[in-house]
Amino acid sequence: MFDAMGRGQKGRIFMSSCRPDELSIESQDLKHGVYTHYFLEALQKKKIRKLNDVHDYVWQKVREFTNEAMHPLLNTSEKEGALYIF
Description:
By secondary structure, this protein is of the alpha+beta class. It is 36% helix and 14% strand. It has three helices and four strands, in the order αβββααβ.
């Protein structure tokens, strides 16, 4: 499903909080979904701007917080160069 969404098209980015066979977990303590919390933390507190670095940060934090119950995904049609979030 993920590969088919961007196949043959440039400029497509697909980010997901978890794999298709997993549930995206909400946390009352975090006041967000776990993925959203760490995504915003990467941008706002850590000031990370490269998309791959944001994903790496979120991937690690989400897996730790959920005890490996969630595995965030990133799929992009751009294979070369850095993508930035502004």
